Structure formats: C-alpha cells, structure tokens
Amino acid sequence: MQIADVVSFLKGADDFVILTHRQPDGDALGSAYGLLRVLSKIGKRAKVLHEGENLSEKFQYLTDGIEEASFEPKTVIAVDVADVKLLPHEYKETYKDIVDLCIDHHGSNTHYAKQYYVDSYAAATGEIIYQIEKELDVEIDIKIAEALYTAISTDTGCFKFGNTTSQTHSIASELMKTGMNFLDINRKMFESYSKERLAIECLAINSIEYSFDSRCATLWITREMMQKTGALEDDLEGLSSIPRMIKGVRVGITVKETETGFKVSVRTAPGYNACAICAELGGGGHEAAAGCFIKGSHADVREKLTSAVEKHIQKE
Amino acid sequence: MQIADVVSFLKGADDFVILTHRQPDGDALGSAYGLLRVLSKIGKRAKVLHEGENLSEKFQYLTDGIEEASFEPKTVIAVDVADVKLLPHEYKETYKDIVDLCIDHHGSNTHYAKQYYVDSYAAATGEIIYQIEKELDVEIDIKIAEALYTAISTDTGCFKFGNTTSQTHSIASELMKTGMNFLDINRKMFESYSKERLAIECLAINSIEYSFDSRCATLWITREMMQKTGALEDDLEGLSSIPRMIKGVRVGITVKETETGFKVSVRTAPGYNACAICAELGGGGHEAAAGCFIKGSHADVREKLTSAVEKHIQKE
Q1: Per-residue pLDDT tens digits for A117-139
Q2: Is residue A232 within 8 angstroms of chain B, CB to CB?
Q3: How many separate helices (H) and strands (E) can be counted in chain A?
Q4: How many CA atoms lie within 13 A of A252 on its CB side?
Q5: According to the model, what pLDDT value does residue B316 have?
C-alpha cells in the first residue's frame, strides 16, 4: 500500500475503532489520538481503545475535547502494533482476526492485518500519521500537532536517538508552526520523576561495579531496592542507559532482578558488540543494545557476565 | 544590519580572527568553527581564538582537519558574545575595542562592536551562522553541519527547551541531510558523565528537603560534597533542574555553597514566579528560572528561602 491507498481506504470507510499496543507509550497514544482527530476532520466517527480503563495522567491532554462516541465499529485500525500479540488483553480476542488496516513503523511487523502500511524509515508511527494527514489535505490544528509531536518526540528521545532523520525534524518544524505547547509536552514526557524514582536511581548508581579497567560498568536493580524505595516498574525508565553514559565505559550493563531470575540489558559504545555478548548467554538484540535472561544467584550472574564480556571486550 | 549586509561585509574583508565567550559551550564553539569553515569555503583565512590552550576533549571533533593558520588578523569577529566582558581574559585587552562585527542571539547584547547582527529569535548563534552560509551560497558539508548541529543542539537541550522554534527544526532537518553523525555528537554532549558526577548527584538527591506539602523541594550542593566526591564545576551541569522535575513540585530550589556564601537557583512551574521569589532576596531573573545569592549559615539560608517562598507559593 502507498500513502495514497491508505487515504483512499480511510475516505471509503466509516465508524473506526483505533487500537494500539499494550503498555501504550507516546507514539502509540499520540498516533492513535492524532489519527482519530484527523478522521474527525473529514467527518468520520472514530474511537480509540487503549489498555486499561483510564489513560495515565501524563497523557490526558491527548484526549482534550474528544467526546465519547457510541457506535458499532465497522472498521478496525491498529497503529504502532508490530504483532497482534501486543494488543491489549481485553481487546485481543475480539479484534485479532479482524484488523482491516495496520499502520506501523516496526520493520518486524508480522503482517497480521488485512492490509498494512509499514514504513520502517519513519522514526515513529506519528510520522506516518502526519503523512496521511498531508495527503488528506487536513489542516493541522494545535491538538493534532500536540498528538503527533508527542508521538515523534517520545520515540526519538526528543530527537536524540539514532532513528531521528531529516524527515523527523522537517515534520517537527511543521508541527511547531501551530504554536502548540511543546515545552509542556517535553516536561511531561522527559522531566517528571517520582520521589521513588530518585531514591532507586541513587541506590542503583551506588551499586555500580566496574570491571576490565573501568571499561565495563554493571548497575544492579534488585527486588530489595524496589521494596525499600517503593519504586514501581514505571520508575525504572531510562536507568539502563546510565552505565553506558559513564566516561570511558564501553560496555554498560544493567541487571534487573525479577521473580524468576535476572533480566540483563547490555549497551555498548561503537566497536563493541552488545548482541555478541548477549548471544553467549542465550540472548540477542542489536549491536549497540541487546539483552538476555540469566537464572541463578547474584554471584552466578556476575561470573557469567564477566566471562561473556571478556570474550568481546577488546583491548584499546 | 541584515543578513545580506553581514555577507557583504564578510566577502569584502580578509584574515579573520573569530572570538567567542569564556567557558565556551557548544553554541560558542560550534558557531565559531562553523563560521571558520564557511569562510574557508569562500577562500578566506580565519582562525578561532578560544579560552585556554587546549579545547576540552569533548569538542575536539569540531577542529578536525583545520590547519593552524599563521597570519596577522585584519578583521575581528565575535560570535555568541553578549558582552565584551565575557571575552576570555587572555584576549580581552587586545580585542575589546576593535571587534569589527558581533554575531549573536542574546537579546541582552551590549553592542560593543563596530557593527553587530543580533537575532534574539534564533535559539542559538549557530542558527545565524547557518543563515549566513545559505546567503553566501556555500554548500553545507558534514563538518559544517556537525559544528552547527552542535551549536543548535546544545543551546536547545536537544530541541527540548522553550527557545526551540519551527526554524530550529527546519535547520536541523537540512543539517541532517549531510549524513553527519548526530548520534555521536548527542552522546558526547548529553550522555557522558564522570564517576564523580554520578557520586555527587546521589549525595545531592539525598539532600533534598521538601516543604509546603512537597510543593517546594530544595537540593543542596555543599563544599563538603564536592570534596568528598572530587566533583568539579563541570560535573554539576544540569543538577539544578532536578528539584523542579519531581512530580508535584512547583518551586524547585538548588542551593550551591561557595567560598563566600550560597548561590541559589530557583525553577518554577507555570503560575509560580521564580523571579518574584528571588527578588525578595536581592536577586532576579525570569518567571520560570531566577537566582540570588545569600550569605550566612545553612540555617539562615533555609529560613530566608522559606520566608521568600511562602509569600509566593499559592495554595492550589
């Protein structure tokens, strides 16, 4: 499908339900509500079904002014959902076999829908929704701009990550012209921490162990730390990038204790292969970021990691 | 002066020395080296004089391939220097009265040069250098793009701060087209911390005192913490934004102990006036970010701050 085909499909269909993935992030919700608003502008009825009864407080602004729509859906769209397994549990059975159109930017998309538009060059699904809007010739208003900016800004770490492209900035430039409050969005998305988050961040930083002449750093997040600080899963966002940020560190490891073992995340500097390290331990991923799962005691994990890193950390 | 006048001036002059401000940041150095490279492309000789003998390691890439030029300067340009007082000490006396052209984005520019081009709409002086380059019809190469991206990205906190505009993103979009390694630049600028930085961050977070039903948070950076961790001034970057990031906090205060007293930085949420709080204590600044200096003991500072905040923190 080309963008023009997506637009023809949308014009020809009615009464949309828009689904997105479990544990929805900024791109999932920004794209879903952005699309809803675009469809409303061309006179279509649409509703977003997201996981859970209420949207988390930080995303509430995405729904401002949207009235609850009660209609029997005729058209099912999934946005930013790479695999049908990722649909929220409460909607999976009803919708998994009847998704009419999937709009996504994950190259790993499993093509579960009747039709799909997947553009893995897009840094966020929000970039695709923007293109749809342009093709539909719908005017960007502040609320659409806020939704799409949220999508793009969150998926690129505010234009910092490697997925950011010239196109990403060009779209952001257009969205900014509406005068939307991007500063407020960025504060909500990137500059809002709970007291519990700060507490566990300190404990985790104090847990850092250096090895291989400080070219490797390992940060621990234990269940005891979680209990002691009262931190929740949401409070851990971004912690796994800390070891890699330390000057001189080439292999940054984060080990998170779970009920059944240890979830390991490895981030490496250019020239050091995170995927190869994790493959030694039955895991995988990308060259710069990979993961694996290790069972055993703290000491076992430490030993296994040391031995895996040793094989792949070159002498400079 | 219009951009066209700046360009005429540059075309008509020769043998440039480019000055920038003390403790040069990404915009200072990115703009200076960006301009040097643009001038080289139109066949002019130019050199950058920055504070200190060596550039800090994180900015080394800006000078790649630039050969040392030995010539008697005929034309003096200051970039990103709002006030002649901000010139590096070693160059101030020689150049303070003979700056031919000042290119800057600070609205507070004191107009010390013979000619000046000040655009306070520009998020960074790097945006102005970009416009000069376009007007000169010089092709953007990767090294120019890296310099100007560094300038723009650092002054906007990677497109996160309120000074970011549609123009900022539009320029970034053009710079990205060269295929420059923006990821590497962002890592150097935003994701590189010393062990000492992490250590003092933890001590500072543990020092946070909450008041007014946790709507005010005060973080302390004492001389003892600096000694204990071995942290330097450079390691403190960004710490003063932590209190304001805590959920529910409306007035975020950072108190830094110096040899002669306490340097106070106040950051507020919309609706809370940081400047009014600091004005109570002889300081000033903007509505969202202001500062003041307090002499006395820790207890004195705490008392004075509490009393100043009390007058301006509204009940919700």
Answers
A1: 999 999 999 999 999 999 999 99
A2: no
A3: 12, 11
A4: 22
A5: 55
